[in-house]
TrEMBL record:
Keyword ATP-binding applies: yes
Superkingdom in the source lineage: Bacteria
GO MF annotations in UniProt: ATP binding; branched-chain amino acid transmembrane transporter activity
Native organism taxonomy: Bacteria, Bacillati, Bacillota, Bacilli, Bacillales
Signal sequence residues: none
Family: Belongs to the ABC transporter superfamily.
Keywords: Amino-acid transport, ATP-binding, Nucleotide-binding, Transport
Name of this chain's protein: Branched-chain amino acid ABC transporter, ATP-binding domain protein
Naturally occurring in which organism (per UniProt): Anoxybacteroides amylolyticum
BP-aspect Gene Ontology terms: L-amino acid transport
Keyword field contains Transmembrane helix: no
Amino acid sequence: MVAIARGLMAKPKLMMLDEPSLGLAPLIVKDIMTILRKMCDELEATIILVEQNVKVALKMADRACVLSHGQISISGTSQELMNNETVKAAYFGKKQTNLAREIII
């Protein structure tokens, strides 16, 4: 998280984050993502986020893509993806599919 703070000090227009929630407690993830979103909004910055925690990814995203075998299989707004039956089945436990466990924002 120090690396994210250090990166924000430079006031970037683009940030690339790879699994920023990995290994963190859920309450800390929520706080960090809230702060990160607020700071990026203030800086008018774009975040490219690779995140396996689908709930975190979709909360952060304006738009998202689901990758399957290195190809974009589904893309849209967070709301569109949350309402997509394939995404629900793969990530929220209705049934297993072959979708990769990655969301890119």
